[in-house]
Every structure is written in C-alpha cells, then in structure tokens.
Amino acid sequence: MRSKITLKDLAKLLNVSVSTVSKSLNGSPEISENTVKRVKELAELHNYSPNLTAVNLKRKSTGNIAVIVPNISNTFFAKVLGGIENEARKNGYQLITYITNESLTVEKQIMELISNGLADGVLMSVSAETQKSKNYEHIYRFTEYEIPVVLFDRINVDLSLDKVGVDDMQSIYNAVQYLKSKGLSKIGLVCSIGDLGLAQARIDGYKAAMSEPSIAFPEEFLIVSNDPENLKKQLSLVLENNVMEAFVTLDYLSTLLTSRVVQEKALNIPKDIKIIGYVNEDFAPFLWPSISYIDQHPLNIGETATKLLVKRIKEPQPKETVEKVLKTEIIHLDSTLL
C-alpha cells in the first residue's frame, strides 16, 4: 500500500529537492546532518514509509536490466539498444525493453511495474511529455527503492541521476562554425522537437555560433515548430524571402522536410544550399543528395550507459552522480560538398 505522504510532499514541506529528501532518508553523506535530521523528523511525524515490497524485492538479483525508450520511430534508439544489449550480455544480464511513445502516463505505468522487482537497474530516455511537464517524481522514487537509474541521450533534464549522452550544444556550435569557416553566413536552423531539453541545448549552440563575432542574425532563420505543416510553411517563407546558403537540422523529421522543401523550390543541394543534419548513417547516405550529419555514435552511448549501470548495481550507494558526455563528429556527404 502506498504511503499517505510521498517524497515529493516531504520535499515541498521542507522546501528542498526530492533528491535531497531521498538521500537524507537513506543516510547519504552528501547531505548535512541538520538536513538529515529535519527530513527524518518530518517523515516520522507524517508516518512516512517507503514501498517495502519494492525494497525487499530489490535485495534479490533478477538478472534483468529494464530499458525505457521514448519511441522507435527513428533508428537512433535501435542503435543505442544494440550497444546496451552487447554490454548487458557480457555481464550476464537480460534486457526487458519498454516503449513510452512519449507519454508521461505510460512512463509512470512502466516505472510502477518495474518497481515491483522486475529488474536490478533501469536505463532510461525520458519521454517528451515528462520533460514538458517536469514531472519527475516517479523517477526519483527509484532512489527510495535502491534501484539504480541511468539516463541516456535526453540528459538535459533537472534530475540528479547518472547520465550518458553527448554535448548537444557544442555539436551544433561546431556544425555552424564549420559552415561559417567555408564563407557561409546565411545559415538557418530547422527543428521539430522543440519540447525536448536537448533541442534547446542545440538551439543555444546555433545562437552562440551565429552571434560570433557579435553579429545579429534574423530571427526568421530560427525555424522551430512541433507541427510539420507549420514547419514546412515557415521554411518555405524563409527560402522565398532570403538567399539562404545553408541549414542545420536538429532531428530526423526536420532533416527530411528541409531536403524536400529546398528541392521543391528548385534549389540545388549542395550547389545552392548546404545541409548538416542531426541524423545517422542508417538513412543519411541514402537520401538524394546524401545528407551530411552529426554522428552521435549511439552504439557507444548504449555501451557506456550499460557499463555505468552495471557498476551501480554491483557497487550501490554512490557518493555522487556521474555525467558522461561523449564526443560527436560531422560526417561529410554530398550536402556539404564545395
């Protein structure tokens, strides 16, 4: 049976984070003695108790790792899963894979199911709805159950957990700077995933690169919309009103749409307009013309996240969380030929 008062309730009453409450209840050395005392006194006053069923089940190894992905609409997550599976098998673990379809409700249901003792640890890329609502209580609850969680890919979230991903801001900054180094200045950005934290980091990288050296760029060059039709309309208007030289696209949909709209305007790629997309080798080389892309090395993300999770399973109660930021690289294909 659930507690009448939750970790989130205690955190709100004490004006501290959920993570601080959880660590205090578990006697973490990261938290001051005074804070630990306040948290425990309030928890006792409200008869707070953790989910003992989940805690007891956690003490027995299942040999399973739960993997939660937000969607399977692009091959990036399939690549990450390949890396996860490679490393999991090396360490004797089986995978249980769940798909949230970007839904907070589904994500909560999955986490509730896992908390019943189905897995020794969780690898997770949070859903778009979760990031938009900033509702993370169901994730923090796993610290109470002593079930380790490692976030991967979508690491631009306010969660004090282990994370493995890439530097989204720097990767786009580097892409824009490369285009500028070739003498291009009219560079647009196209994004269809504005709700995600990583998208904002990528947009920040674009803005930083475009503003150097302290030169303002037209706001219409920044094309962001979650609605494909609106995105297409904005992109068409920019191409009609400006002699654009290049685009940096932040996701699969925006890459495909940009390539199509540019060619529908009778513009040649790469002669008239160059493109660098945030996609991967599974389809970028097969577009016509092939699209240069930022390679995140998803297999490496999966392997690195799994290594970290296995370490947490075998060595519980870490003193501090770890954030591993892996390097990306630009793979040049037809769309950036000079």
TrEMBL record:
Q: Where is the HTH lacI-type domain?
A: 5-59
Q: Which Gene3D superfamilies match?
A: 3.40.50.2300, lambda repressor-like DNA-binding domains
Q: What InterPro entries does its record include? A: HTH_LacI (IPR000843), LacI/GalR-like_sensor (IPR046335), Lambda_DNA-bd_dom_sf (IPR010982), Peripla_BP_I (IPR028082)
| Pfam families according to UniProt | LacI (PF00356), Peripla_BP_3 (PF13377)
UniProt KW keywords: DNA-binding, Transcription, Transcription regulation
Q: Which GO terms describe its molecular function?
A: DNA-binding transcription factor activity; transcription cis-regulatory region binding
Entry keyword annotation includes Transcription regulation: yes
| DNA-binding keyword on record | yes
Q: Which PROSITE patterns match?
A: HTH_LACI_2
Its name, as the record gives it, is LacI family transcriptional regulator
